[in-house]
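Lecture 7, part 2: worked example. A protein chain together with glutathione.
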Amino acid sequence: MAEVLSWEQLAEHAVPEPDRVNGPTNAQAELRLFGHPESAIRVTLYRDLHAWCPYCQKIWLWLEFKRIPYRIRKVTMRCYGAKEPWYLAQVPSGMLPALELDGELITESDVILLALERRFGPLGMSLESDQALANRQLERLLFRAWCLWLCSPGLNARQQRQAREQFRAIAQRVEQALSMTASPWLASDGPSGVDLIFVPYLERMNASLAYYKGYRLRQEHPAIDRWFCALEALETYRGTQSDFHTHAHDLPPQMGGCWPDDDPMAAVLAETIDQGQGLVDDETRWPSSAEDEALMGRIALSRVLKHRSRLLAVHPLGASGFDQPLRAALTTLITQQICLPASGSAAGLRYLRDRISVPRDMPLMAARLLRQALEATARCDGSAQGAPIPVNHRFDQDPKPFQSRPT
Ligand SMILES: N[C@@H](CCC(=O)N[C@@H](CS)C(=O)NCC(=O)O)C(=O)O
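Predicted complex, written out as structure tokens:
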């Protein structure tokens, strides 16, 4: 067993905060300039604090790919906590996203995308072209087949098979649409606006169908896998990408429940995801070298150090009870050597493992390494689990204590 490092020793492995404003796409920024002066800003995006809302992700990706300077104002989604009154005063329904463009407030993600396209020009193929319209309809068809399968309680074995086959048939139509071009994309010249419209739900389908249905989207549909691989090669996409653990547990309150099929593969994949192992190849096929991994471990460490006092204060074991186990897990993260945590800390370590939110807190790969280190440390102390993750809400994920500026 390795010796548990002190906070001062751990801090020696931290990396400096990246440039949130002009650097790579990230969930923490409140201002994005892409090298322009602040006076060039014409856009404010109202987006959810968790960087989880699929409709916000479309707009977020579009602005990032087009490198349009913009401000971000973050708003709490209902299932994580109370909605900010200043936002309700502007958008009484409280729905996200919203966008201010040259002083005009616009809601509804598709309306927002069209307004942005008209003001700044399309990203590749226009969203109003016949081909894009057909693809957008296909995206909604796939969405409906997914919802029917994932969110219908009490399906019997025959209905589960039927729902699976309905989904498969529409996913095959998406594959056909993808094979119309020589590139991995829906339009030939790089990711276009219509590709971005597919991103949020294909990402959520990929995660939730593995977890609840044992259906491995990327294995079943090679053209969709090629499309994901091409996306993952882009740093801009990776900055917005969530992981399977976050999606599997953030979807139920949003969707009104997600229901597992009686499929042994679903149970195996769900357990692997819950333990924080990640699903290599299904979740991401972005290759990471040993060097990348070491850096990602240090990024995870730095994110924990930044929020250390709040993390300890809100933890069920309390600051004094969780200080040593957390340092033990972080030591493992950095040194790859197992450290013994204080007795009785397994549930507390797993509580944190289950409450890392991607990309709100850190990138996918950093979170995977941190979850793995927390689990490996917890195992030294036994099999006790943290409080179950709620399925009707995620108030356990209220980000307010971690915000740098009051709302
Ligand atoms: N049709 C809307 C749907 C937007 C939507 O459903 N947003 C959800 C989040 S994913 C929302 O704001 N829900 C209220 C809340 O969670 O606070 C659009 O495309 O913009």
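The chain has 17 helices and five strands. The pocket of glutathione is lined by residues 53-55, 77-79, 83, 94-97, 108-110 (CB under 6 Å). Keep this in mind for problem set question 3.
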